[in-house]
Amino acid sequence: MLPLLLLAGVEAEPIIVTGRGLPPGETAGAASVSIDRERIRQSASGRLEDVLRDVAGVQSFRRSDSRSSHATNQSITLRGLGGNASARALLLLDGVPQGDPFGGWISFPAYATDRIGQVRVTRGGGSGYYGPGALAGTVELESATPSESKPFVGSVAYGSRDSLDVRGSALLTGGSSALTMSGAFARGDGFVPITSSTRGPVDRAAPYKQASGAARYVQQLGQTEAQLNVSGFYDQRDRGVPFTENRGKGIDTSLRLVGKGGTRWSVLGYAQFRNFASQFSSINAARTTSTETLDQYSVPSRGFGFRGEIAPVSGPFDLRVGTDGRFVRGDTKELYQFVAGAPTRRRDAGGRSSTVGAFAVATLTHEPASVSASGRLDRWAISDGFFFQQTLAGATLTNTDFPDRHGWQGSGRLAGEARVAPPLKLRAAAYRGWRLPTLNELYRPFRAGADATAPNPDLRPETMWGGEVGTDLDLPAGWRAALTGYVARLHGAIANVTLGRGPGTFPIVGFVAAGGAYRQRQNLDAIRSRGLEADLSGRLAGLDARLSYAFVDARVDASGPAAVLDGLRPAQTPKHQLSATLGWTGPSGWSVSGTGRVLSAQFDDDLNVRRLHPALTLDSYAALPLGRHLAVELRGENLFNRTVETARGADGSIERALPRTLWLGLRLR
């Protein structure tokens, strides 16, 4: 066994392990933005979803974060290709897809930002290299390398509404190995999600409690590096009225071998085990009572996957070939049709799906130009789908097995870039991508207030064609600017389509009260989007500056039952997004930064009736050193206490995101 040395006050041996995979496989023509470790550390909330908002155009389905939003609304999309809560961008951590195996949502409390070394956001889809799911783009998270980590770091912060945030990590190294262990815990009494002017007696604060832990072992074996990851999380939230608690937990593990010799190669295998539970309630018009309507007491799921690739050629011609696969299974177990506060029926619905594909990426670089082409072919399958309902007395109401389905889908990307002058680079790309419906979309009904949405086991895969042109400009004094224009068309976009109004009883979901809407997930004809993205970064009079802006003009093409949506904007899709950060770091470790974000108006529903007002927020961060290893941290979120609307209910209630939150903490460095 190789010795492990705790580096506390002891001169370390040089760390030769990296903990990283092969360099990115597609770079030519990419509209990419990177967020470094220092910027990640200075996030006012310390949460990954807020770090990602530094890149305009990256958005979750709701404006709220993982302390108050329902977990199933936490996804990632870009370029206005939203419209429902399913992720249309692919999130990876050390090469492993992070979407929930059942629902595709992202469990953001699982990612303590202290563990992350770098974030790379690539806008634009059709990645032959990464495959299914990368419709709107790819978000790559890389764990902090041993050289980026310290022997021990920890922090504790106390915030508004009796909030607590505690984190710590330790690094142990030998000459050719490194072990990192970390943990995080957060809790808070929460705020009342409904605005003061629209809330009622039933509304109360929504507390949260979240924890995560991870261990990462990296071992150098000659020219091969082995990377073993094990992580877990627990997430408990409340939605601010009785019978609306939701909980999630999971354990993930992966093993990656990376060959760094003359012929580079990588082999990855992973397993994910998740479980989710959620209660739903119906609230009367006066918001005086909350009645339980659905108890999804268990949504177990698991996912397994592999990836292998080889890069036999380097230098001006880079070639990657490989294969990957992902296999998921899950079901939802529910109690429903409550009478006098007790359930009378139960149902179980779910299935399994898989994708297996092969890919090739070729890049030729001949200064001052570079061109790359990638392609892949995937075999997809949806199988063992079922829907079962019975009374608690034992009488079977529904027992349906859905037909197995399968097919082939192709992805591809052709891109090029050229430096036409020393400071100026032009780039262009065209691509095709696709996404398989999640088990959640296929089989799980859900409720949001008085509204109810039914699944659809006949959903088809989404496919997207798109293209972009852009320019990168190196300006004087280290400033850099990027501008990208794009068009995209998402065929068969899956959306929640309104088919009826309450009061009434509807298939699968049952009774919908007056004012509520009955919806079903359906494939639209398309979502077409076009837009412009601009990024600027550099230093100004000792200040680090970063600005990101996205303009999105997205519209729905629809016919048949969804014809009423034709020409409307996809739900939860703002036309303008802006993020701007100014920061300063002094010679003795002082640091101050402020981040302003602007979101234009957007609609909460597919019919574009429930309009959410524009939002402006300002966050801040300051670190004041108290000696060499200790610093005081001051953090502020939404300093102006602006009301950020996230949803509008059928009863006129307005849900909001986080109000002003102040933090005071200590960090051991």
Automatic annotation (TrEMBL):
Organism: Sphingomonas ginkgonis
Assigned keywords, A-Z: Cell outer membrane, Membrane, Receptor, Signal, TonB box, Transmembrane, Transmembrane beta strand, Transport
Annotated ranges, domain TonB-dependent receptor plug: 26-138
Superkingdom, natural source: Bacteria
Main localisation: membrane
Protein name per UniProt: TonB-dependent receptor
Lineage, highest ranks first: Bacteria, Pseudomonadati, Pseudomonadota, Alphaproteobacteria, Sphingomonadales
Compartments it resides in: Cell outer membrane
GO terms under biological process: siderophore transmembrane transport
Transmembrane found in the keyword field: yes
GO molecular function per UniProt: siderophore uptake transmembrane transporter activity
